[in-house]
Amino acid sequence: MRELTYVARRTVEWREAPDPKLRSDQEAIVAPVAATSCDVDSAILAGHGFIDPPFALGHECVARVVETGDDVTAVAPGDLVVVPWSINCGACDHCRSGLTAHCTAVPHMAMYGAPIGGSWGGLFSDLVRVPYADAMLVPLPAGLDPVAMASASDNWSLSWRLVAPHLKARPRARVLVVARGSIGLYVCDIARALGASDVLYVDPDPRHREIARGYGAATAETLEPVRHGFDIAVEATGRVDQLALAVRSVAPEGICESAGNHFRPGELPLLDMYLTGVTLRVARDNVRNHIPDALELARSGQVDPARVVSHVLDWDQLPDALPEKHLKPVFVRAEG
């Protein structure tokens, strides 16, 4: 089989690898049918990552189940499934408490798309082994488009977690989104659908701001801190100066969620945060827990994640098209 491999800044190539085989009765082999780049993949391709190449890329996809072990009961060959980015067993203490990104049955941070916690390959591959199929794989609900939901492995479900629980606790909250890519746009869509009173989306890219306006958000190219302006702030830029802007805009006892990958250091206004009582979370998400709820919201028709898909491209275009600067390209492989 082929797996797409990151080899140098803005350079990827197909490399041949052995077809994966089942290693236990709990496993499955899947074939990605719609895969997309995560916002962090863009940073890796730009040379901002902290892991030296080469390694297999890709950790967001909808796939078709090809083969299952004898003990797998949740999915069957032919099913369309979401493959979560992190490897998790579903049975250890961490998994049972929802910390699926910290599963103790595998090395810490075991994941697809980067050799952290072992080498598990990437989801831009013709075939993928899923070690704990019943725990990991989530069937795609009937009626949902695999292209629109290719990001449910990570960015879409993460975006649900960034705002949905907070809006349940704080109905009609004011939401600030400081972003540069798909996560921020998904947040705009979800926040409006779940009852936010105001959503302000800040991004220098006019194309992104146009999508945000389509979701009912107000937009700005840049923003000076709005003192006590927002109940919930979401930062998804990977820039500490933008995170500082977000936390300075949060109301007393407000919440700031950081979904950016901060490869570079910076300073936060800790005294301001202390005086305001800001709750700041900076986290790689335990996304497997949230995938069913995020898919259910998509199935409800209240949101439209397909608007964020910038390009639909053929699977064989991956080496040439992935390094280009697209918002949310989805690569589709013909079946049969």
Automatic annotation (TrEMBL):
Domain Alcohol dehydrogenase-like N-terminal residue range list? 25-140
- Presence of the UniProt keyword Metal-binding in the record: yes
Q: Does the keyword Cytoplasm apply?
A: no
Keywords per UniProt: Metal-binding, Zinc
Q: Which GO terms describe its molecular function?
A: metal ion binding
Q: Name one Pfam family in it.
A: ADH_N
Name the needed cofactors.
Answer: Zn(2+)
> What is the name listed in the Swiss-Prot or TrEMBL entry for this protein?
Alcohol dehydrogenase catalytic domain-containing protein
The species is Streptomyces asoensis
